[in-house]
Structure formats: C-alpha cells, structure tokens
Amino acid sequence: MTPLDSDFVRAQFPAFADPSLDGQAFFENAGGSYACRQVIDRLSDYYVKTKVQPYAPYPAAEQAGAEMDASRTRLAAFLNVAPDMLSFGPSTTQNSYVLAQAFRQMLAPGDAIIVTNQDHEANSGPWRRLADSGIEVREWQVDPATGALDPDALDALLDEKVRLVAFPHCSNIVGQINPVADICARVRAAGAVSCVDGVSFAPHGLPDVAATGADIYLFSSYKTYGPHQGVMVIRPKLADRLPNQAHYFNAGSRTKRFTPAGPDHAQVAAMSGVVDYFEALAAHHGASGGQEAAVARQVMRDHETALLGPLLDYLGNRNDLRLIGPRDAAVRVPTVSVDLGRHAESVAAALAAEGIMTGGGDFYAVRLLEALGIDQEQGVLRLSFVHYTSRAEVDQLIAALDKHL
Predict the structure, then answer these.
(1) How far apart are the first and last CA of the chain?
(2) Which residues of 337-372 are buried (b: 16+ CB within 10 A; e: fewer)?
(3) CA angle, 316 as apex, 311 and 322 as ends, to 5°?
(4) For 213-261, how does the pLDDT look when each residue is reduced to its tens digit (9 = 90+)?
(5) Is Transferase given among the entry's keywords (predicted)?
(6) Which domains, and CATH codes, for the chain?
C-alpha cells in the first residue's frame, strides 16, 4: 500500500491554509473534524444555486433534488448498503432519540434491552429512558481497570427477553476498537437487534457497514469531514417493523420515516463532497476498479497507526498519569485519553499556549469515567487526531506535553 501523501491530504482541507490557524495543531478531532474543500464547495454552491424546495418541476429544484439523491446513493455505496437504508437527521443524538421512541412503541413491558457504560451518553441515555415504560435495562459493564468490553460478559446478559443491544464501535475515551462483527453475530444468534454507535470510529475510515453485521449503524458527518448532521443505517426488515416517526403520509418511505422534522437539504447534498474527497484520496494512492473505499480506509489507517505508536509509547512510559485504553496502536483509534490526577481542562489551556488545540473533561462519557474511578471534576485530557494530522504535529504535541505534565 502506498504511504499516505500528507501534502496531498492537507491540500484538500482549507483550514490548513488559513492564517488564523497557522502553527495550531488540532488534537480535538473526536469532537469534530475539519471540513474538506469538496464539502465546502458543494455546500456553498447549493446555497447559491439551489436553495429552493427540492424536487419541484423547475430546473433549480430538480437539480437540488438530484444532488440530494446523489449523496444518498454515493454514500450508501461507500458504506456497502442499499440507498434506502440510509437516513439523515440533525445529529446522531437526535437520531438515537427518534429510534428509542420507535422501539418504545414496539416493545412491551418485560422486554429487555442491553446498554453499556462505555458509551457516549447519546447512545445510552435514550435507551435507558425506556425503563420508564416498563422495559428492563441491563448494563454491559466495562473492565474497571482497562475500560474494555468483554464479549463473553455480554453472553451472560443475553436471553430470550432481550430485544436490543446498543454498544459503541469504539469509545470516545478508551479508543479500543470493539469486535463489532463478533458482537453483532452474538446478538443476532440471541434473536435481538444490534445498534452500533460508530461516531468515534467512522472518522478513521467510513466503515463497510454490511461487514459489521449491525442492524443499525449511526455516525456523525461533521466528524467525517462533512456538514453537521447525523447519518443512520437501518436494515430494511427492521425499518419496516418499527413504527413510523414522521408524518403519517411518509410511513411508506424508509428514508423519511425516522426523520420527523426532515433533513437539512443543503447538508444532505453536501455529503457528496465527503465521497468526492475519499474517492480523490483513493485515486491519488492508486485505487481503481471499485477498490476506492478499501484503499481509502487502509491508507488512513496505516498513517494513523504509525503516528499513534510514538504517542502511546511516550504516555505509557510516564508514571505520573494513567493512559486509558490499550497501548497497542493496532487495536485502537487515535483517540487517546489520560487521567492526570488533576484538572485536565487547565492542562489543556496550558497546551493551547503551545499551539495545541485539545480539551479536558468528561466528553459526555460520565458513566465510563465513573466506572474507571476517575474524578468527574478533574476529567481526562483527550488527545485525538485523524489522517490529516502530520508527524510534525505529533512531535509538537509530545514536546508540549513534556513541558506541561
């Protein structure tokens, strides 16, 4: 595999050419990534040329609708799913809430669901609230020393009462990649539905959702170099079983029935820009013949893993902090959290003076920090990057950490 061409990649992101960001190394990508040029161009063009009601019988409206349809078709192909399995909503948090309301109508008192305490609250809270309707909520708990989820521990929770299991592809704190295909197979064998929160994984290579075996897969496009919205994949048979959450006359449309307020037309159209970028990345690195998705994922993954190793070694060799998650870069994404034993946000502020953009806190993973025994007021320092991060920026980060830890 051709090594990632960082100069080519960074040229696709206008942020790296902006004078106000010169010398600033961005290490809070888990909270949201920079947008690529292709997305910005498509969003701007839509607002200028086609900011009309789409699908009406005049040219601007027809073009608007065609651009939205193209985004759905192209993104679905990259995710290896059918276009009608894809729904767009204002955010993953909102998509999760809507899903939970649909399940609330379909489940009966005495049915059980399983959630984890490794999750971001957006993929846990809406499901936990089903307890108010008599649904039994079981918690698949992390190892309090490592923060990892053990699939064998899930088996002990699965029985004939369980209807759904919601869990993350990887945690926004721990960073360890969960064996999603194995977990989904266990859930399916138990007769339940799997709901995978891919928000923290998708920025590191839009996944082959079909290969995961997930019944539901969610991620946020603003963390995958696109506009601020949530993307949701639902298997057709499940989508047809779940009660309609949109206008009654949209009940027959899989792409509309789980978006009560309707999507942002311009942002949906701009999602083609994400695919434009990934295709350009893959082509630049030699992809052809339908291998664009696989090549894009691999060059991104190889680059991130190479940069992550030195950072994990540096943090793992210090005895004045606790590195959360595995030290092996091959089994995790480059979202690295450390317990400093002091207020993490104040350290983030000190790092900002060195040109390091990062943050400290609980990052909406309060239950996980509680399970790990981390002081909620102090939180963790989170250092997260993606494939457009350079080796020089990682060196800059390590030098700044060495100065302030």
Answers:
(1) 37
(2) bbbbeebbbebbeebeebbbebbbbbbbbbbbbebb
(3) 115
(4) 999 999 999 999 999 999 999 999 999 999 999 999 999 999 999 999 8
(5) yes
(6) 6-35+291-404 (3.90.1150.10), 43-274 (3.40.640.10)
